[in-house]
Amino acid sequence: MQQESEKPIRLALIGECMIELRGPMFGALQQSWGGDTYNTAIYLRRMLDHHFDVHYITGLGEDQLSHFLLHAWQEEGLNVGDVTLVSGKRPGLYQISVDEDGERSFQYWRNDSAAKYIFDEQSGDVLAAQFQRFEWLYLSGISLAILTPLGRRNLLDALALYAGNGGRIVFDNNYRPLLWPSVDVCQAAYREVLSLAHLALLTADDEQVLWGHNSVEEILAHYDCEEVVIKRGSEPCVIRHQQRLVEVGAQRVENVVDTTAAGDSFAAGYWFGRLTGLSPEESARCGHRLAATVIQHPGAIIPKSFMP
Fold first, then answer.
1. How many Cβ atoms are within 10 Å of 165's Cβ, its own excluded?
2. Which residues are within 8 A (CB) of 121 and not within 5 positions of it... i.e. 6 or more apart?
3. What is the dihedral of CA 86, 82, 169, 116, to 10 degrees?
4. Residue 205: inside a domain, yes or no?
5. Catalytic annotation present for 264
6. Contacts of residue 164, Cβ cutoff 8 Å, sequence gap at least 6
7. Which of 81, 139, 151, 275 is most exposed, with the fewest beta carbons within 10 Å of its own?
8. Residue 185 in contact with residue 276, Cβ under 8 Å?
9. What pLDDT, on a 0 to 100 scale, did the predictor assign at position 102?
10. Residue 24 in contact with residue 97, Cβ under 8 Å?
């Protein structure tokens, strides 16, 4: 997938970053920030060199928290030139509790966040023209779910035009039922994106809940993407590329502290590998290695010093 060019290869990830409150309700809470595509963007930016320019497309407000987030993202090396500041809106917020096995439970306050409205004012053709600056676009099911119906329609129209003009799309199926008005609306949106995607990153559990797919064979039969990766937690991931099927085992982790961003970091590691010319198998090992490191630390984003 790597391209030789004098200019940096431009990648853009679309989604939402929220304020994170970690700890027991009404207890001592630690404040941080995260979100599925944001987590992937940060890990990808840390791994890629200067030949790649990583943009994050989202919405923030004009408040102090929003300005703090912008500064923090820039410190990580993200290009924030495509962040929309939405007047009168603020970042979303979530509270996370983690049990003794590292499994999480969440509470969200995001229904009126700034990111919800970022595509409301721009038609599909206007958005597509902006997207043409990027060689790759990355989005998830959550990226679609948080938008207004108008914004989602504008984005889907833009993605079709973008792909039709040679743009390449990566889609992670992150499915959160509570964010969608109905299963039918979600399935229709997923069908549109997956018909355009070059690379599909699919969590097996989400496939089962959304589509009723109970096996790898059922999942693969459902998609025509050039490259499909099925994430199965601690089980080997399954990759179909150019009609070849391979499995790559996950790394064993004895001390799981927090599974937040496990899938997001795997996605970053896998995409990093493919962008830099590694094979699907080598890329999956990159993804597993990063995810295994991330889940041994609290929170979505680990300190840079612990990056593998």
1. 11
2. none
3. -10
4. yes
5. yes
6. none
7. 81
8. no
9. 60
10. yes
195: containing domain:
9-17+36-84+113-306
Please report the beta strands in 26-103, taking only residues with DSSP state E, as ranges in sequence order. Answer: 30-34, 52-57, 59-60, 84-85, 93-98
pLDDT given at position 167: 99
Question: Tokens 């929003």 sit at which residue?
Answer: 66
Torsion of CA 111, 213, 105, 290, to 10 degrees: -100
Query: Is residue 237 a part of any domain in this protein?
Result: yes
Residue 167, amino acid:
G
Spatial CA neighbour of 59 closest among 141, 120, 108: 120
State the catalytic residue, choosing from 53, 206, 258, 264.
264
CATH number, position 121: 3.40.1190.20
Segments of the chain with pLDDT less than 50: 3, 5
Tell me the C-alpha distance between 272 and 287, whole Å. 8
Domain count, the chain: 1
